[in-house]
Amino acid sequence: MRFDTFQSMKLGQSMKLAPRMIQSMEILQMPLAELEERIEQELENNPTLEIVEPGQDAPPVEGAGEIVNDDPMDRDRPMEIDETSGAEDFERLESYEHANPEASENEFDSEERTAPERTYEDLSDFARRESGGDRDAKMDAMAAAPARNQPLVEQLRDQWSICDVDPLLKPLGELIIAFLEEDGYLRTPLETIIDRAPRPENSAGPIHTLGNMQRALEAVQLFLEPAGVAARTPAECLRLQLDALEAELEEQGDDAWPHETFTHARTLVEGHLDDLMQNRLPKVSEKTGLSIAEIRSALSLLRRLSLAPARRLVEDASRPIIPDAVVEYDADGDRYIAYLNDSRLPNLRINQEYAKLTKDRGVEKKDKEFLRTNISNAQWLMDAVQQRKNTLLRVVSAVVAAQRDFFDFGPQALKPLPMTGVAEQLGIHVATVSRAVADKHIATPRGIVSLRKFFSGGLHTTGEGGGGGEDMAWDAIKAALKDVVDAEDKKKPLSDEALVDELQKRGIEIARRTVAKYRDQLRIPAARLRKQH
Predict the structure, then answer these.
(1) At 24, is the pLDDT very low, low, confident or very high (cuts 50, 70, 90)?
(2) CA distance to 404, 476, 503, per residue, from 460 (Å)
(3) For residue range 192-211, what is the model confidence (pLDDT) as tens digits?
């Protein structure tokens, strides 16, 4: 075997994306909220990019914002103040003090002697008096801003720190809280917690007993809120909430739920929770001796409870949906008009002063290169944002024209719309359409809808009674399935085979497994779970 090196020529074609093209595709795929963050980041990092404020469309005037007194000999001298401008105000103040001697004292010092604390309303009134009667919008916004949520463990530790319990149980309770999971459950056995507890030096055996740990767990479950925290099983979580709710109603003197209902609910929770989850109420009635009416009354009480009450302490930080486009109905022209929701985006431009410095011969070469690079990046960003606006508006307009029946009649009138058809209509690549609709939402007369919802496949229906059919999208078939389930007899719910037959009556022919898949996507339980006894 021998290895040789040689040169050869090969003819071929390859496509390489320029950085400008990559940036344009990234900007096109961004939703409105991410695009705002991207522009803010570029404004912070790029000094040549600036925002055009309202009324500043014209280029900035030379010398604006500079120091008025630019004499090098006067820069070290202190700034002169015109003392004659406030002479009249001082004269009025002196005349007022002579006429009202009691006003010469410090008004706020006297108030502080009588009122040790000053509330937000007092400060707001003072700010309103000082500002001429208008409330301070910044102070109101700061007062109305919600506080930042603490993690679940820190909130529970704060509660536990003020609980009046045996000093021996204090460290054990803190140890139990440290092992709680995000939903508030304690799934770690107490024996494991004892083994993992920190030990002092020169200590070989366990430092905590199982009995003390059990007492600490009972104290944590009793004192911490909401009720159900530190439960080990769903049944225990529901039982703790039942005990707390009954005690609260007795303290308030509320007899909306009788004691027998709480007793029945505890019976169902302790031994028949699985049968309840499977909606086997006759079997539960046979085992417990309770009537169906008593079981349903206990179930109505259990519906007020939560299987994970600790999640109420920590809210999910879900980002709000900001529509990228708006669709409105024009009654005069009997049409739907689409326009972009670009009022949130700032108007950008390149700073003219920095642009002039790139042509100044007195500027060093490295500084010119720095400015030219940033100006080029700023121009690329503005071009990409403008191209995003044009492409997104064209795609949304094509969707509105193709899905007119959806805006008129609702989701059941949604038609199949492949991306390839829109791409051919607009003369762009299908990948561009896919990026334009990614993570985008539009505000319509029927609510805020995901833009990708309008692009889906479908089938051709035969029509009711075997008449002429029409094209129907998969989402429209899901809406028809939901209507059939909503209209069924809850005492005799339809099985998946029966749902297939009902959809065939509407001209929709799909398989049973497709019905089961769509039912799961719509979070519709099976017929056995939908039955009302």
Answers:
(1) confident
(2) 18, 12, 13
(3) 888 887 766 555 555 678 88
Q: How far is CA 492 from CA 183, 276, 402, 431, in A?
A: 36, 18, 40, 48
Which run of H or of E encompasses 298? helix 292-302
Phi, psi angles (nearest 5°) of residue 338:
-115, 140
139 with 300: CB under 8 angstroms?
no
Q: How many helices (H) and strands (E) does the chain have?
A: 24, 8
Fold topology of 459-530: Arc Repressor Mutant, subunit A (1.10.10)
Backbone angles phi, psi at 326, to 5 degrees: -130, 135
338: three-class secondary structure by DSSP: strand
Domain boundaries, given as residue ranges, for the chain: 152-199+207-312, 325-454, 459-530
User: For tokens 């009480």, what's the residue?
Assistant: 301
Which residues sit opposite 340 in a β-bridge?
Answer: 325
374-396 residue pLDDT tens: 999 999 999 999 999 999 999 99
Own/partner pairs for 376-380, CB < 8 Å, 24+ apart? 377/42, 377/46, 378/42, 378/46, 378/48, 378/49, 378/348, 378/350, 379/350, 380/20, 380/23
